[in-house]
Amino acid sequence: MVSTLIVLCSLALFAVAVFTLWWMLHAWRTPETLAATRFADPDGTGALSFSLLVPARHEQEVLEHTVLRLLESSHTDYEVIVIVGHDDPDTAAVAHRLAAAHPGLVSVVTDTHEKKNKPKALNSALPHCRGDVVGVFDAEDQVHPDLLAHVDHAFRDTEADVVQGGVQLINFHSSWYSLRNCLEYFFWFRSRLHLHAAKGFIPLGGNTVFVRTPLLRANDGWDADCLAEDCDLGVRLSSQGAKVVVAYDSEMVTKEETPGSVVSLFKQRTRWNQGFLQVYRKQDWKRLPTFRQRLLARYTLVTPFIQAFSGLLILVGIAIAIFSQVSIVVALVSFSPLIPMTATFAFEVVGLHDFGKQYQLHVTFVHYAKLIIGGPFYQLILAGAALRAVWREMRGRKDWELTKHVGAHLVSEVEATS
Amino acid sequence: MDAMTVVIEQRTEQDPNEFEEAVAPAPARLTRFLAGHIDAVIVVALVIAIVAVQAVNIGNFPTVSDDEGTYLAQAWAIQHGHGLAHYSYWYDHPPLGWIQIAMLSWIPALFDHGSQVVMHARVIMLPVTAAGSALVYLLARRLDLPRWAAALATVVFGLSPLSVTMQREIYLDNFAVVWMLAAFVLALSPRRHLWHHIAAGLCAAVSVLSKETMVVVAPALLMAVWRGSDRATRKFSMVGFAAAFSLIGVQYVLYAVLKGELLPGANHNSLIGAVQYQLGRGGSGFILQRGSVSNMTMHWWLVRDPILIYAGAIASVVALAVRRLRPIAVASVILLVVAARPNGYLPAMYVIQVIPFLALAVAGVVHAGVRAVLTVGAHRRLVPRPDNRFFRILSRVRFGRRDLVAFAAVIAVGLVAPFWETGDETADTSTTNDNYVAASAWVKANIADPAHTRIVVDDALWPDMVDDGFQPGLGAIWFYKVDLDPAVTKTLPHGWRDLDYVVSTSIIRQDPNGLPIVRAAMTHSKVVATFGAGDQQIQILRVDRTGGGQ
């Protein structure tokens, strides 16, 4: 009885780990797959117009840099709409100053909702968008000047409805958890998202995401009650059969920073997990046409919860197997999930090496050591956040916990280039 | 340069079919299907031929060996839930080899089940050889060899008299080789797919866990993965391969740890202890020193097929210089060097691991030679001709490069074919196991109460005794265990007096360990039946408990 339970659980965990690994490595399956994850070179004739939304909340320190950087874009037809809260005079002041300095290019929309969150801010700006395509950036994002030209080309070249560009946390040196956090993003945007795009089910990212304006309006913009409005939008558009294209170019990614502390990482992860739960419960994914897509959706949306506890479950399984004197075969099976788990660690090391090469960052032995040793602890944070997400969702607490940004990636860039 | 030429050759080979499909009036569906699957057709034909030659007379030649019986007995133990061996498992080899034997053991049951189990169980080697042959062909193609060269490699692999002898026997090496070939085939997959490289690591691990000595080929396989992967994704391929290989391999160590048998200690077997034993195992001498056991082993190989050994060894060294052949050349050379290390232990079945690489090297080098003859310096005359009457006559005979190749091929076939034909005919007609069959039949007919009789046999007969109803382990006793396994010895309080029969075969007589209880039992016994004469004679001895004897 105990044996059967151990075998079944272990095999399930083994399968989960293998699938996760498989998808994590999607982009590197063949050289052709890897080549296809990049942006095609633009043809130089921009044809679409863009409305770039930049919601900013208590981010007066980083907003100006971000907007000025957007204005360096090589694309010729775009507008920047900064969205500020009516209760946030400091950020509003920066935004209005920028609008005054760049009339016609930068405008400000004030979000007057009593309780504020990102989807509400975005929805406030949607009626003011004049472009063919709406793009979203966060106030601390560093955007490459050539990104719009590439996105423009991708839209026309592939007849896409949605283009998701790469987002990359870059300050891997800041702390042990930011190292892992950076790598998580690397595997997600570099590899996994491409698989989702190919399979026709994709939870979109929170920024560097571009949607054709009519499609967005037809869907009433973002879901103001969802804590993962980006994921939700992706799921809703996917289930309508919208064509989503993902492109990742290390030169073209939007650079971001990791949360400034373990606590804010924990809160951010809680919000995402709770958001995933909400998207799952909204059941828009059930309208996906094929069974396999629905299965992928179901699996992807509950993955944070499975993964959070798989590490713990494996240890429990092994402990039971050893102490309850089951047969040697069962004991061996209880260890089997460690095989893909260890392989995942090995591939993370390769990923970190590749990350360092792509971004010309100096990765030392200490970083590799941190990556491995930090693994289980990071897993603990994820497990805690998953638990808290379930707890909050059950208690009906759905308020928005904002991640505070301090601009660590801006410093890192100075360090890296100096 | 090499690759380019081959690509062109392959294209010209494929073109006629495409042409035929496009222009010719629609041929019958079968013809079209066959034309589209030429490689498959060749493989099927070759495999049928090889399996046919290997299957005929498989039970009667070569002589059953104790090792075959051991592996079969261990497979029997797995099938019947007795753990990993018929006596306590002592980490002599990783167990995956006989786990595979156990998985295939339903096959002999399909055929007539005669009195000698080992002979009849040899049928399970046929699918193994079939898989091996197909993989050799595929690997040759993935080394950019044209079809004829791939077919040559397959023929050498499957029809050399040495192969026909060794591949019939239930040896772990035969399983290990198939998995290692699969690993090479996957490593050189033209799609350069990460999961193929990971699968190559898995296959390599299974190979090593089937027969641990296969691990020496790992550097060559690593080379193949390097070559088979693209620059852009190579890092991931190499790590995927290494991770799969090591993580599966380490399961064996984990097994030992979980059983508390990793480190040597009193009263239990251990993995480390077994490794120490194997490494310290008395060497069989230097292979090239006359009179050493290794030299005799090599001599025995040479008797079966000197062509494969000599030509293969030379071709392996030459193939090191041909870039696309290098991975298998390195594998071959490593195996040869390991065999030639001074005073290492060299068992007869070692050659099984080398055969596919020798075969591929031979075919690869022949292909390289043919191409050189056909292309190098094509604008110049092959041989400068002196101006005399004889050569003037000769020069009127048009003697092109193709003719030279054809001529050489005819000569080579003419030299090799009769020798192989004789060797394979011996394999297909000799009956070397009659004594075993007769002894086994005698025991079955003449020992009335097997369940309460204790008989000492070698492992080649052990499965038969179990089949007859002797108690596995303590009734039918593998002769080594009488003296060396405390669990068996303690059931013999009166020493040899507690035994009833000993079946004396050459294996038991040759044993140098001087097993005292077995010796004593043989001394205090009467011969009740004798089969054959000379070295291979088998005698059934009944122990005379009163103390009399021969």
Defining traits:
heterodimer; A: alpha/beta; 7-stranded mixed beta sheet; B: 550 residues; mainly alpha; 5-stranded mixed beta sheet; 5 strands; 62% helix; 4% strand; disordered N terminus
Characterization of this structure:
- The complex is a heterodimer of chains A (418) and B (550).
- By secondary structure, chain A is an alpha/beta fold.
- The longest helix of chain A has 33 residues, at 291-323.
- In chain A, strand 2 (78-85), helix 4 (89-101) and strand 3 (106-111) form a beta-alpha-beta unit.
- Chain A is built from 15 helices and nine strands.
- In chain A, helix 11 packs across helix 12 (328-335).
- Chain A has two domains: 1-36 and 160-418, no CATH class; 39-126, no CATH class.
- Chain A has a seven-stranded mixed β-sheet with strand order 3-2-1-4-7-5-8.
- Residues 411-418 of chain A have low confidence and may be disordered.
- With 550 residues, chain B is mainly alpha-helical.
- In chain B, 62% of the residues lie in helices and 4% in strands.
- In chain B, strands 2-1-3-5-4 form a five-stranded mixed β-sheet.
- In chain B, strand 4 (525-531) and strand 5 form a beta hairpin.
- In chain B, helix 4 crosses helix 5, helix 8 (125-142) packs parallel to helix 19 (350-375) and helix 11 (172-187) packs antiparallel against helix 12 (194-210).
- The longest helix of chain B is centred in the last third of the chain and has 29 residues, at 401-429.
- The radius of gyration of chain B is 27 Å and the shape is globular.
- The interface between A and B is medium-sized, with 22 and 23 residues.
Write out the strand line-up for the largest beta sheet of chain A, numbering strands in chain order: 3-2-1-4-7-5-8
What amount of the residues of chain A lies in strands? 5-15%
Q: Uncertain spans of chain A, ≥5 residues at pLDDT below 50?
A: 411-418
Strand content of chain B: under 5%
Helix content class of chain B? 55-70%
